[in-house]
Amino acid sequence: AHGLLEKAALASRADLVVGQSTRRGVSRHLLTYTDWQLIRHADRPLLLVKGAEAWQRRAVLAAIDPLHAHDKPAALDRAILAAASSLAHAAGGPLHAYHAYAPAVRFVPGTALEPLPVLAPPAEQKKHEKAVRDRVLRVTRAAGVAAARVHLDRDEPVRGLPAHARRLQAGVVVLGAVSRGLIARWLMGATAEKVLDALSCDVLVVPPPQRSRVGRSRAAPRRKS
User: Fold this and answer.
1) What is the model's pLDDT at position 19?
2) Phi-psi region for residue 181, left (φ > 0), alpha (ψ -120 to 50) or beta?
3) Which of 21, 59, 138, 171 has a CB 3.0–4.6 Å from the CB of 55, allowing a cystine?
4) Residue 201, pLDDT score
5) How far is it, in rounded angstroms, from Cα 100 to Cα 156?
6) Which helix (H) or strand (E) holds 18?
7) Which residues are CB-neighbours of 65 under 8 A, at least 6 positions away?
């Protein structure tokens, strides 16, 4: 089914693919085969619709990773923020940005000569947090996101992102897909399943720009008039 959908999207030069997230009952705790294939093969933005609620005047939450801790290319953050900004403008709601980051750690000798990670001292944590905030704000400022609407979180995105979406009553969360493979880095695998299941709002998955270019290059050339 996903192959036919991809061909149809190419043939119609679609800018967006819309699908209903089909998780129900026991399967709500697992990414269904259809959802998985739609995300895995998407070469253009994919909107997973999870409910019938309208987006009007509701927040749009963009999940970004400016530190590229999850192997996300820098251009993908710009694409995520651009898509989220367009949605927020169309819906008449506020644009928010979210970034989950790990605390600063040090490594000390452990058993069997294996290094053991421990939290860095408070002064080092404060310096690390400032560096993270400065990096994130550079990206979000360029996209026109107000500093008060940028949310930094030391929690795992599995817990933190859905919690922020609920608190903001977001109509849609915009995420980035970084891999076509069966092994995930951020938006694939067990983490993705848990995040997508925990989000009660709609989800827009934005592919890396280079994947989008590949998809467009496979489309048939336009006829000259």
Assistant:
1) 72
2) beta
3) 171
4) 92
5) 7
6) strand 17-20
7) 72, 77, 99, 176, 186
* Structural tokens at position 186: 């951020």
- pTM for this one? 0.77
63 strand-pairing partners: 98
CA 96/CA 171 separation, integer angstroms: 11
**What DSSP line would sit under 25-69, residue for residue?**
GGGGGS--HHHHHHHHH-SS-EEEE--S---TT--EEEE--TT-T
The rounded distance, in Å, linking the Cα atoms of 148 and 59 is 14
**What's the pLDDT at 219?**
41
Token pair in block for residue 69: 């801790």
> Phi then psi for 10, rounded to 5 degrees?
-65, -45
Instruction: State the Cα–Cα distance between residues 16 and 97, nearest whole angstrom.
Output: 22
Evaluate whether 67 touches 220 at the Cβ level (below 8 Å).
no
126 three-state secondary structure: helix
- If the chain, 225 residues long, is cut into consecutive pieces of 10 residues, what is the mean pLDDT of each piece? 49 69 48 59 79 90 81 80 95 96 87 82 94 95 96 90 95 78 43 76 85 43 41
